[in-house]
Amino acid sequence: MSKSILIAEDETVLRQSLAELLTDEGYEVHQAGDGKEAYDLILKRPVDLVLSDIRMPQMDGIELLAKLQQAAPQTPVIIVTAYGTVESAVAAMRSGAHDYLLKPVNFEDVLLKVERAIEFGDLARTRQVITEQLASQSTFHNLVGEAQNMAKLFETVKKLATVKTSVLIVGESGTGKELFARAVHYNGITRDKPFVAVNCGAIPDSLIESELFGYRRGAFTGAIRDKKGYFEAAHHGTLFLDEISTLPLSVQSSLLRALEQRVVVPVGDTQPRPVDVRIVAASNQDLKKMVDAGEFREDLLYRLDVVKLELPPLRQRKEDIPALVHHFLQKYTKEMNKRVLGVTNDAMRAMLAHEWRGNIRELENVIERAVIFAEDRHIETEDMPFAIPGLVHDDSESLKEAMRQFERHHILYSLRRHEYDKAETARHLDIGVSSLYRKLDELDIPKNMQEQDPAEVPA
Ligand SMILES: Nc1ncnc2c1ncn2[C@@H]1O[C@H](COP(=O)(O)OP(=O)(O)OP(=O)(O)O)[C@@H](O)[C@H]1O
Ligand SMILES: [Mg+2]
Asked: Does residue 58 have its Cβ closer than 6 Å to ligand 1?
């Protein structure tokens, strides 16, 4: 496809001869007699390059350049100017012009610069596309995930953007089920409508029905006026039913009816009311097994499980740990207004080796806590509540090295606990102060640690 060029030039003769030259070279050429006309043309139809004179009536070249930087920042602009006004060419370059041409123009010069500028524009666009792709891969609605299995989930969420299908999210505790539920809602056509989250496990069985579907005045003692349920509150939006496995069988039937007939019947009422909600349900239990055990209705499971998002436990996507650590470091240093220098390699290794039974929530807690204690220094292995050195293997399997690591860790822990008071630390370690000093030497623990980080005393 031929590249398109817009020439903005008020001198008709020059504009037309440039247009002829470039058309002969195979470019698709558009012409404008001033900046305003040029700008209007570009808004209607983007081009690959703009050749613009500086001095023009209505809108001059510099103003056009500034506007293009806003409206079409990837489109290169070559400024054309007379000999006497080289300064303005320089100024234009500073404000973002790609190149300049001096009048009277040399045609060979024009062709060379035009070709180069178009190539540059192509590159810039490619780079932008790649950067955007990378950005959307690694975070999506605040969801960090570069691992392959996460990319697939993000794809599914994107596909759900235009439909209101029921979604079932399964995964261990702390894997991000609620965050994904929000992503489904806020990424889709429901985004301007309510998102109502209900933790089914937190509502007493006797109240669930009335909480979900509402009640009429007088339906039971204490029902002094009509009340809408969560279903109606989520009308046109998303109802997030967390811990769906805890719903009593009787409520499961009412839920099924609501989903199939798109109506709710408030407790104490006979009149069904229409509702339009998309259901996102979440569970950390194996619902299939519950069906087999007669604890969950199979027909309800089919209704809910139209699209399933299976969130992998963190230990199956360890490649995401560094990105998540970075994400939570930023979040908590900002929130607590603290500075942390980073994470030592050892600490990162410890986190990569850990099992993370509590998944992302556990990782988030570890970082939140570490940020409190690691002000103005790096987060270290000792800041990991789970880290037992010796479980963090370097390349060495030597028992002696493992014991040395353990000793170092324990002494550091004790020092912090006693605010670097050596006498106090020695007393608790049940060794003499001079032995403690000898150990500090042997284990490469700085003796003046107190001055380095006075603030931290782990709980
Ligand atoms: N991919 C992710 N990127 C960034 N933060 C995440 C991600 N997944 C989860 N989190 C964070 O981890 C924490 C736990 O997530 P969430 O509450 O969604 O888990 P859950 O699966 O609903 O857990 P539970 O089953 O215990 O309710 C939240 O603070 C959430 O913001
Ligand atoms: Mg949850």
From this structure: no
